[in-house]
Amino acid sequence: APRRRRRRRRPPLFLLQLIEDRPAVDALEGDARARDMPAHVVNPAASIARAFARASDAASAKATRRAFTPSARSRAALRGRAPSTFRLSGTPAPRVVGRVVVASAAAATPSAGEDADNTAGGVPSWHPDVLDPDQIDGDVPTPGFATIASALEDVAAGKFVVVLDDEDRENEGDLIGAADAMTAESIAFMIKHTSGLLCVAVDDETADRLNLPLMVTSKENEDAMKTAFTVSCDLAASTTGISAGERAATIAKLGDAKAHKDEFVRPGHVFPLRYREGGVLKRTGHTEAAYDLAKLSGRGAAGVLCEITNDDAEGTMARLPQLREFSKKHDLKMILISDLVRYRRKREVLVRRTASARVPTEHGAFTAVSYKSETDGIEHVAFVYGNLDDEGKENGGSLADGDNVLVRVHSECLTGDIFGSSRCDCGNQLDMAMQRVASEGKGVIVYLRGQEGRGIGLGHKLRAYNLQDEGRDTVQANEDLGLPVDSREYGVGAAILRDLGVKTIRLMTNNPAKYHGLKGFGLTIVGRSPLFAPITLENKR
């Protein structure tokens, strides 16, 4: 019988990242040399990546990278939109000169269909990644988009605005307005140009007052973005509740601060959403954007929102080119959530610095700077290695040079960080990050408290351990307990970094979600370096 041709196995994504991330490989192998041990013993992943990088089968490596890397996947999926600016630390980053991007010679060229006048060196000038937050006034929008102030004027006048989130998040545009300004005509317009699932962003106090509990508990929420749907509702005086006029009446009443729970029936045809306390400074979603826009406009604390779709046979989601055309046709302002974050950050304080002190460690002397969250009161700490400029700072200053800073945003892990549990590699990753920062001579370790067990809490984490003993992995254990796989948020971490004067960062993480979570808050990430701790029988799940 003929021999079956062996199928070539593709290397996992983290190896491909290491191939591109030569500085990370060098750092890992340098760590091995420092311990006077063979590199393949201390960090086998680095050795494998190095070997693969030297492999003669370049075509296979190229095909594998094309299949796995986010930028390639984005180019294939977005067709004509600007390529993703996701970069690993081995890739040259564009230089920002004022508002102009000077890309490296290796930068990708614009694909067919892109607006050549709106790009520089292959990177679109509207993309948030190319804007240095410290060079931009919080009131100045990303090029090609409206100012937040002008959008707020329109919302206050009862008009809609088009709001886009990050291209690496949902990558969609929502039609958003103030709930209390809705009329039959405005809702008819909204229904015609969107998916038709009309939602209203409200705060927890309003939802509780109107008896609008969550549709499913946060533990049972399986939505990719953890959107907090409540039970649907209609105004009690409605007949069918589905017409534009009756939905407008329901939505307007949800935006009425004097509304009473007895004025609604449940379920219905309008879908309230509970926004996350802190708004877009806490979670960069359309729910939070709708609430913030309505509140900042002075209309009230409830915003209506729905995803804009194309007028085609399939009712596909509208992307940037279609959203630009739609906004122009209907004379609507178009804004970015990232611009709303900058607008709010200029006017509000997310964290407050409380103290600082020199803390000697086995890796050298760090400056510990404590912070208190203004939204939930939790205290966090940043361990800074490098010179702090004390000018203008009561409790320590800012990094003298905030560019290209090596950063680790580490979520609290009591069992791993303090007690050395071998069920996870958290303690090892923290130790490796501190060692790498000290070796470089400049960097920040942000330690976020209140995020035990990926945000599920210590008790639930210990229950998940019991399920892992029965054979589940971390994700399966959380799901079996009805808990979110990962509920961590990084807005506070971003605020701490900016308070320390950090401008551009090289992020040490194995978690792409952390990359996107920080990027949404205006930090310019010029590279990502993985942290590979030893794999044991206990932590391999």
Automatic annotation (TrEMBL):
Sequence ranges assigned to domain GTP cyclohydrolase II in this UniProt record: 353-530
Pfam hit, one: GTP_cyclohydro2
Top-rank taxon: Eukaryota
Pathway: Cofactor biosynthesis; riboflavin biosynthesis; 5-amino-6-(D-ribitylamino)uracil from GTP: step 1/4; Cofactor biosynthesis; riboflavin biosynthesis; 2-hydroxy-3-oxobutyl phosphate from D-ribulose 5-phosphate: step 1/1
UniProt keyword Iron, yes or no: no
InterPro entries found in the cross-reference section: DHBP_synth_RibB-like_a/b_dom, DHBP_synthase_RibB, GTP_cyclohydro_II, RibA, RibA-like_sf, Riboflavin_synth_RibBA
A single GO molecular function term of this UniProt record: metal ion binding
Gene3D superfamilies: DHBP synthase, GTP cyclohydrolase II
GO biological process terms on file: riboflavin biosynthetic process
Catalysed reactions, semicolon-separated: GTP + 4 H2O = 2,5-diamino-6-hydroxy-4-(5-phosphoribosylamino)-pyrimidine + formate + 2 phosphate + 3 H(+)
Transmembrane segments annotated in the record for this chain: none
Keywords for the protein's UniProt record, in alphabetical order: GTP-binding, Hydrolase, Lyase, Magnesium, Manganese, Metal-binding, Multifunctional enzyme, Nucleotide-binding, Riboflavin biosynthesis, Zinc
Sequence similarity: In the C-terminal section; belongs to the GTP cyclohydrolase II family. In the N-terminal section; belongs to the DHBP synthase family.
NCBIfam families reported in the protein's UniProt record: PRK00393.1 (NF001591), PRK09311.1 (NF006803), ribA (TIGR00505), ribB (TIGR00506)
Name of this chain's protein: GTP cyclohydrolase II domain-containing protein
Provenance organism: Micromonas pusilla (Picoplanktonic green alga)
Taxonomic classification: Eukaryota, Viridiplantae, Chlorophyta, Mamiellophyceae, Mamiellales
